[in-house]
């Protein structure tokens, strides 16, 4: 039943197993390695049900369980004695390759994978030791890797014997909780490279289902054991799970898999197991792989809003939604969710304004549907802050900007210009709200005390408006800022609850004040007598308007010396003071301002790094990517003027390239989806070549006269992009 062509189709999973058990396989000379082929299995019955006490989730760690609540540890099983070493196995494989006799290798594989007990006998470093801690799985990782690396190059009957053994293990009737040996077996089986082949997906799915159904305490062990896997193999495991989910959603050959109605648990099980690897990845600093390696771009093509609404309605209940596992959703997909959620809120608020107007028997007008901001360029900051403060009730409406004395109509371009100029002025050091740190090239909140923090609230609202209206800003906040902005991601109902407070480390301080962080790091590693040589106390000093003020890091801190024993506490309290306590009122106002516009459950989906990308876009300009995605109107990409244009632009300095992007789009930042998302267009301007280029920033459109030479085009383009403030109508 496992021969090529699959002459016999099996009606059930159990008959498939039976057929394998009944098949008599000769162990003589084998054919050369071939690709594993398993017949399609249409009707799959579920594996035996797992005991209730195993399926039940407990939101606690095994380490915190009281003694009386812990399940009794079953007696240690009697392991068969397996003495084969890595070198013995490699010698057997080399002999088989040269002689064509795979008998010894076949025996090893068929025996080793026949049961969970045999897997432990082969791969456990010491079968006499329990290895019941999260720190050491007891798995001989080198042996496992060698065995799996050789597996795909063995004959087909050897590979089939491994799958047969795995099936036997999965079909075992379980009674009571899993042992650590069972968890070890699961950990080893997950790494089987055969599961990259779609023909093994039915077996893979049942393996994932059993792992997903383990208790929280068992998952705790798997998470910690997984962080010891090498980066390359960890990435392979993650990619295999992502591929499994993608192919189940959009199978290349639907007939390969059982009908979706019979395997609705496939994707939830795989996603749950993937979440264990994501948790494992997060435990290490730096992580094993980038958080973006968990993105599944296939999800960009499903109905994301249905997923989002299901999650909103049912939360983390038994109804599955990818939003329960946001690490798998790409930033591009999250941006779509946030944009559509924002649009729905805009429509809702505009509709409510219209209803209120009509109910009062007043004549409605179009302006009431928008957040209309009217400012003078000469008083940009004061006018903007006054407008936002006065129209706080309209912040969730679509933004429209008017510059007094200018005829430009805001189809998006004026809004981008307003944000750019406003941010540039607010963050100027002379304004005093933010301090620019030259060493880290980023801004941080000024710790100066003041009577009114409303301006920080309005700056937060400004940043929220940018996200809400899909505008990228040139703001240079450190990553710590976005971590604080999501602490918590939903504004608490109790106004006495602290907001914007998060766990901060010396690494966070390095990103803002690297010189000070380096000094604190030196203090931690100092080998001499800290108390006598540094003569410091738990007290810090700050200059405010020319006056030196002191602050205790803990009660009576000025009387507590810093010693070798308490220096870690001192450093942690100092970092917490700088990044949390000293700027609490400023950041809390900023936090409430941001969330007054962006309050949405969609924020729960985001990591701090993703919020930063949504706010700032990407600073990396790839003009070659822009060239590939540019559309043309009146020109062909082979026209001489267009060829001149790209020769000039690709040769520009980074500063000039940013000016061009700002001139044509109103922003010098790249959106989340990259240059292709700009929808950049170059149109032919039927005007004299004496004219400068013209841009329609609302539509990311550049109107280019047909200049006759590269020199003329470069000269006119540089003049145009270097003098690009102000709007007018012809």
Automatic annotation (TrEMBL):
NAD in keyword set: no
Enzyme Commission no: 2.3.2.26
Gene3D superfamilies assigned: Hect, E3 ligase catalytic domain, Hect, E3 ligase catalytic domains
Reactions the enzyme catalyzes: S-ubiquitinyl-[E2 ubiquitin-conjugating enzyme]-L-cysteine + [acceptor protein]-L-lysine = [E2 ubiquitin-conjugating enzyme]-L-cysteine + N(6)-ubiquitinyl-[acceptor protein]-L-lysine
Sequence ranges assigned to domain HECT in this UniProt record: 391-730
Keyword tags: Ligase, Phosphoprotein, Transferase, Ubl conjugation pathway
Gene Ontology biological-process annotations: protein polyubiquitination
Any coiled-coil regions, as ranges: none
Active site residues according to the UniProt entry: 698
The keyword Phosphoprotein is assigned to this record: yes
InterPro entries: E3A/B/C-like, HECT_dom, Hect_E3_ubiquitin_ligase
GO molecular function: ligase activity; ubiquitin protein ligase activity
Pathway(s) where this gene product acts: Protein modification; protein ubiquitination
PROSITE patterns named among the record's database cross-references: HECT (PS50237)
Job of this protein: E3 ubiquitin-protein ligase which accepts ubiquitin from an E2 ubiquitin-conjugating enzyme in the form of a thioester and then directly transfers the ubiquitin to targeted substrates.
Protein name as annotated: Probable E3 ubiquitin-protein ligase HECTD2
Source species: Tricholaema leucomelas (pied barbet)
């Amino acid at each position: 039943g496992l021969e090529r062509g699959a002459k016999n189709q099996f009606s059930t999973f159990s008959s498939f197993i039976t057929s394998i058990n009944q098949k008599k396989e000769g162990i003589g000379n084998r054919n050369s390695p071939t690709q594993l082929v398993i017949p399609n299995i249409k009707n799959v019955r579920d594996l035996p049900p797992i005991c209730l006490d195993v399926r039940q989730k407990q939101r606690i760690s095994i380490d915190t369980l009281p003694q009386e609540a812990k399940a009794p540890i079953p007696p240690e099983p009697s392991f068969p004695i397996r003495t084969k070493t890595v070198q013995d196995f490699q010698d057997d494989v080399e002999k088989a390759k040269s002689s064509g006799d795979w008998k010894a290798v076949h025996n090893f594989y068929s025996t080793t994978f026949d049961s969970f007990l045999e897997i432990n006998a082969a791969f456990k470093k010491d079968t006499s030791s329990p290895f019941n801690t999260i720190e050491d799985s007891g798995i001989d990782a080198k042996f496992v890797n060698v065995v799996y690396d050789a597996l795909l190059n063995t004959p087909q009957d050897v590979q089939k014997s491994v799958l047969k053994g795995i099936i036997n293990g999965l079909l075992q009737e379980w009674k009571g909780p899993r042992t650590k040996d069972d968890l070890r077996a699961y950990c080893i089986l997950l790494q089987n490279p055969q599961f990259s082949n779609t023909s093994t997906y039915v077996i893979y799915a049942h393996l994932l289902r059993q792992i997903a159904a383990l208790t929280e305490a068992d998952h705790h062990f798997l998470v910690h054991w997984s962080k010891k896997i090498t980066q390359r193999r960890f990435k392979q495991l993650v990619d295999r799970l992502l591929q499994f989910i993608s192919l189940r959603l959009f199978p290349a050959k639907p007939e390969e898999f059982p009908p979706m109605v019979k395997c609705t648990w496939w994707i939830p099980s795989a996603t749950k197991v993937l979440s264990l690897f994501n948790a494992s990845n997060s435990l290490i600093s730096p992580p094993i792989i980038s958080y973006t390696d968990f993105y599944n771009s296939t999800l960009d093509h499903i109905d994301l809003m249905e997923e989002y609404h299901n999650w909103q309605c049912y939360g983390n209940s038994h109804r599955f939604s990818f939003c329960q596992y946001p690490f798998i959703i790409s930033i591009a997909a999250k941006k779509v969710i946030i944009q559509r959620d924002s649009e729905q809120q805009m429509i809702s608020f505009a509709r409510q304004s219209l209803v209120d107007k009509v109910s009062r028997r007043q004549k409605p007008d179009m302006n009431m549907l928008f957040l209309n901001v009217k400012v003078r360029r000469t008083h940009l900051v004061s006018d903007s802050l006054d407008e936002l403060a006065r129209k706080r009730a309209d912040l969730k409406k679509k933004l429209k900007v008017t510059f007094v004395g200018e005829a430009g109509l805001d189809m998006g371009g004026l809004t981008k210009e307003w944000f750019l100029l406003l941010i540039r002025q607010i963050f100027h050091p002379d304004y005093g709200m933010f301090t620019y740190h030259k060493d880290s090239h980023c801004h941080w909140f000024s710790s100066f005390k003041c009577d009114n923090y409303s301006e920080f609230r309005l700056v937060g609202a400004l940043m929220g408006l940018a996200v809400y209206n899909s505008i990228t800003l040139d703001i240079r906040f450190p990553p710590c800022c976005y971590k604080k902005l999501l602490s918590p991601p939903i504004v608490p109902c109790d106004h006495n609850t602290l907001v914007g407070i998060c766990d901060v480390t010396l690494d966070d301080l390095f990103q803002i004040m690297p010189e000070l962080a380096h000094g604190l790091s030196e203090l931690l590693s100092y080998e001499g007598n800290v108390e006598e040589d540094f003569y410091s106390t738990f007290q810090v000093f700050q200059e405010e308007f020319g006056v030196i003020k002191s602050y205790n890091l803990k009660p009576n801190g000025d009387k507590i010396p810093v010693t070798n024993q308490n220096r870690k506490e001192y450093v942690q309290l100092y970092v917490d003071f700088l990044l949390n306590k000293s700027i609490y009122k400023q950041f809390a106002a900023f936090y409430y301002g941001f969330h007054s516009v962006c309050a949405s459950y969609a924020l729960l989906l985001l990591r701090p790094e993703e919020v930063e990308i949504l706010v700032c876009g990407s600073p990396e300009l790839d003009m070659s990517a822009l060239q590939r995605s540019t559309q043309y109107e009146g020109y062909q990409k082979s026209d001489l003027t267009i060829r001149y244009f790209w020769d000039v632009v690709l040769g520009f300095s980074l500063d000039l390239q940013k000016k061009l992007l700002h001139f044509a789009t109103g922003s010098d930042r790249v959106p989340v989806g990259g240059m292709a998302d700009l929808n950049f267009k170059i149109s032919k301007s039927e005007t004299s070549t004496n004219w400068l280029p013209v841009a329609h920033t609302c539509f990311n459109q550049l109107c280019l006269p047909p200049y006759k030479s590269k020199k003329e085009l470069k000269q006119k383009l540089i003049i145009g992009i270097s003098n690009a403030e102000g709007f007018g109508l012809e």
